[in-house]
Fold these 2 entries.
Entry 1:
Amino acid sequence: MIPNINYNNLKDSYLFAGIAKKTKAYLEANPGTHLYRMGIGDVSLPLCSAVIEELHRAVDDQAVKGTFHGYMPECGADFLRKAIADYYRGRKISLSDDEVFVSSGASDELGDILDIFGHDKTVMIMEPAYPAYVDANIIAGNRIIRLSAGEDNGFLPSPAEIPTEAWGKADLIYICSPNNPTGAVFSKTALQAWIDYANQTDAVIIFDAAYEAFIEEEAIPHSIYELTGARTCAVEICSLSKTAGFTGTRCGYTVIPHDLERGGMNLNKMWVRNRTTKTNGVSYIIQRGAAAVFTERGQQEIHENIKVYKENANVLMEALDAVGITYYGGKNAPYIWMKCPGGMGSWEFFDKLLNEIHVVGTPGEGFGSCGEGYFRFSTFGSPKDTVEAAKRLKALLENN
Ligand SMILES: *Cc1c(COP(=O)(O)O)cnc(C)c1O
């Protein structure tokens, strides 16, 4: 018996392992040093009180015969599917409740969704990219084509840059906006170009909207369905992880419009079939907590938390502005993607920050080779540490 040989094609996830190894070695050599951890892609603030109260209430429901819930519907509880669809409808996007699928998080879905496309597809990934896109497709045995983003396109590649003849046609296109790691965001015009391209070429866009709640600018689309033609070419995957601090609580959602068909097959129906086969739904308790996010109070409270992260972003951006460093993101995303000073490599800069100012960030090269020479700061850390890290960073860059 030979198991899935595609696993042999995975590279070691050296990015976060490499960071962990280097910081551990530093702490062993310099015990007791306080490190300013600006690398984590995890939130640090607790769940808001609207969610906590609802979780408690739901636990109590499970204690009483009349309110107890057993198996939940595989595609999501009606109350949560409606709450999410209402959230979209509030933004003038018309979705029916059964176009929304409740999930245990976006990472699960970004890979699981490949089930409905088959495992011999060509997948376009814009790099620098969230590492899971690449790995999930390697495991599925898909062919990956990488579209490099860089300063010349503002980290926002356009379909015009695709060397079509050399590559053949992409079946799937992953787009993440606001982007992790670069913080870049697609304007309506730029995103429309991808929608038109996908519709023309019969491709399907997997739109990762994990950071939509961080968008500040009025004109930036929160959802791909704000644009014309997206209902016939796009799946949207979102998560409450970064929006509402659900990284350890686990809940997300996936939107598949009824209009999305390929080869005479309806992708919404296929996903219903997939979920009813492969899941037994998300926990009742968690779905109740998730529904609280979409209430008026929940929205207000999660945005208070997001404001804290945005203040962290402001502190870092002020430091970089003061020393004239080029960076992306920070405004509509919880990440700042800076250019390493003096043409330094991203791991070289990592070592310098760790050794000289005890700040830990994420080397851009770990998100794809075109990320070399860049560095990612997360704004999810504590405000106190962020202020000190920004001060140290500014002093270090001033002296270079
Ligand atoms: C954090 C993150 C997610 C969310 O993943 P979950 O599994 O829902 O926690 C999805 N996409 C990107 C790009 C992310 O950075």
Entry 2:
Amino acid sequence: MNEAAGKPAPRPGILDIAAYVPGKSKGPAGVAVRKLSSNETPLGASPAAIEAYRGLADRLELYPDGTAGALREAVAARYGLNADHIVCGAGSDELLSLIAQAFLGPGDEAVFTRHGFLVYEIAIRTNGAAPVVAEEVGHRADVDNILACVTDKTKVVFLANPNNPTGTYIPIEEVRRLHRGLAPETVLVIDAAYAEYVRRNDYEAGIELVSGSQNVIMTRTFSKVFGLAALRLGWAYAPPNIADVLNRIRGPFNVNGPAIAAGVAALGDRAHLEAAVEHNDVWLEKVSVALRDLGLHVTPSVGNFVLVHFPDEDGKRAPDADEFLTARGLILRRMENYHLPNALRMTIGDAEANEAVVAALAEFLEPS
Ligand SMILES: *Cc1c(COP(=O)(O)O)cnc(C)c1O
């Protein structure tokens, strides 16, 4: 008998999906945990955002504003955008899924890079389209390789800039060159989840590229530097033709009221944002240098995390390091799912957590 008979079958492609595995948050019983596995900010959310969130606690019977108008206005004012071209989502993950849902179906292809963010592949397969992987060069997206993957079946190209988990970025000139190489019918998604952290003269998140096109979307999130990951809040800036499409298919109340209020307040707290970026600037450098001094290879990162590569030596590989660190309550991210079995990703934490990881890895690497 046909194995599939007698039970519902999902659409083709869905059973090919490897479910997303979030960062661990637990260590051994009784050991204090420092979670550096999900790129969360060690500074937490802005106190103003927390207050705004609490302010809605006794109004939970009310539906939120389905247009998230206050948030779109606040984002528009902050970044100099037209609020009509902003679409909010329950995390940028939702927006990435909506984009895939709107533009991908069976027979279509979508391109992302070898170590690109895993949500793209899930979103592509969910819609029955074929994922196409462009090789990176030095763990960095390579525009020529991406363009070489593009065919007339390619409907969407996903680029995380900077990328998670590698932490690398490509200059805006390269993103423009990528865009010029695509047909006007192909959607270019620039996922700029870590844009606020990047301090490089040749980096831009892609706002101008969106404004001047009909096929570029930039996605942003409140989960990372703004510290609102628990609320699930993101936004996309898109040309009117694409914003219109996303607005047709999104849930009518896809962003919740406390999230809208907290997001508006977070945008207003410049000092908190600057403190978070400043902290990261200092510790990204310190951690990268300290780990390299231990002899580890650290991919140069502009995000709030580093990709650390371990020696190919018995007892010193990434899974061994992970076990050693976890026993001490230091939780980093395993990278097998990202085809980086001998690397761990470490989120930049507070001073104490960062120093604890460096000290533990020094001990781990000592010749036995
Ligand atoms: C964390 C992250 C996101 C954001 O996810 P949310 O759904 O907004 O929490 C998007 N893209 C990348 C590359 C990320 O690392």
